[in-house]
Amino acid sequence: MRALIAGAGYVGAALALELLRRGHEVVVLRRSAATPPPGARLFRADLAAPGALEALAPADVVFYTAAADERSDAGYRRAYVDGLARLIERLARMEHPPQRLLFTSSTAVYGQQQGEWVDETSATEPVGFAGRRLLEAEALVRAAPFAGTVLRLGGIYGPGRVSLIAEALRRSPSEPEAIPHYTNRIHRDDAAAALAYLAGLPEALDCLVGVDSEPAPQREVLAWLAERLGAARSEAPRTPVPTSARRARGSKRCRNTRLLGTGFRFRYPSYREGYAALLAECEA
To answer: How many CA atoms are closer than 13 Å to the CA of 4, on its beta-carbon side?
Structure first.
């Protein structure tokens, strides 16, 4: 299989390694001249620049894992709408268009804020620009002249992304919440493995939620981390946890039933396994 990964950043680079491990040919599309993962080839282009994709070679499967370079409406429009639209237009004009396009969306498309359970059939009424732009991008995937799959990822963590560990070191426990602030996450390596797995299914699935099997209150995850950090935490300066600020980001519980139903299995089925691995890496 010839695979093109458009936007090979945090998840895309891990995906490239996963596909190479499975014996596939991989091309990564990036703006920068940064060295691609070992074994992959680089196609350097700016997705937002008109005409930049004319020399792009055909691929059997295309992954769109680009990320916005700034958290603004304009930044999200450039990354998830304009860039994706240009790529789809170029792929559609090829003599041999791809068999499948996989797009990494986000659970930000859900506007639920009271701890509701959501899945692929739930209402998508985002309260912020991020979710709205991602829904625009999802519509582009559905309208493309080739099969498309949308994977709505939760909060991505993994090597190099240890902000929650730092928060557990920094903060004292908050008061118990009357309504828990639920969070949903997925380890980077599971996100990459899920994309590779879905690309290999006989038929493309239109939309799946990509989170691990245990949505959990943020307070619970911080407490679990603090317990394992032990003495290191006791020596760190502490600040209170602003629960009202966390509430503003919404609270929902995302189901991964459809993803599990495909036969995919998580390496890190909950935050416990994933963060235990990160803590072990930090100690090594």
So the answer is: 23
